[in-house]
Structure formats: C-alpha cells, structure tokens
Amino acid sequence: MTSRRAFAALLLLLAAPVWAAEEGEPDILMLFDQFVSAGAAASRCASPTDYVAVHFLSNFQWVSTYATREISRRSPTASNEEVAQELARRSRAVKEETHALVQAEGCDSDAVRQLIQRFVVQATWKRAET
Confidence band (pLDDT; 50, 70, 90) for 125? Predict the structure, then answer.
C-alpha cells in the first residue's frame, strides 16, 4: 500500500465513529483498531512512562477480550483459532498502515500527534468494571 493510500485509510479510521449505527452500542472492533493504531504510533514516536504503558496495555487487554467475543459472535462457526487469526490479521493491517503513516508524515504530523494523544487518553481511560 502506498503511503498516500495508507494515510487516507488511517484518516478514515480516525474519523469513523466508535458507535455502531444500527445497534446504538459501541463498536468494539473499531475501538480495538483505534487502540492498535494509537499503540503503534506511540511505539514509534513516544516514550511513555512504565505507568502509562501498563495502563494502556491493561485497557487494551480488556478491549481485545471483547473484540474476540465480537468476532466470535459475528462468525459463530469460526473456531477459536480462526477468531484469533482474524484478530491478529486486523492488528497487523492497522499497525502496517500506522507505521506507513509515521514513516511518510513523521512523528510531528497532526495525524500522528492525534494518535499519540489518543494513546494517552486510552491509557488513562477508566472503564466500568464488568
């Protein structure tokens, strides 16, 4: 994928609402993608403290668990291995697009800075215990 196409795809990802229009509930897969993108940008352009990194990873683990459940719900005949492969595929694709964006635009670009800001917000996000 060219850097221009990767940038356009990432902008669409960033602009997309986290809310599923037909269900009125958060789209956990979109949230998963946003966590992956923010984490990928932070891995290239930020030096988070251990505290921030641990909190981000804790929240990402929670999102990943629910994303796995959602993939299983959408594909009820898929095996656990197929579900895990789909989640890994999504993650790789988003990371590749994000890394291409960072390479093309640099860490000081507005799009990358927004991803770093999202990383910080996601690290400090306090979810309701379920």
Answer: confident
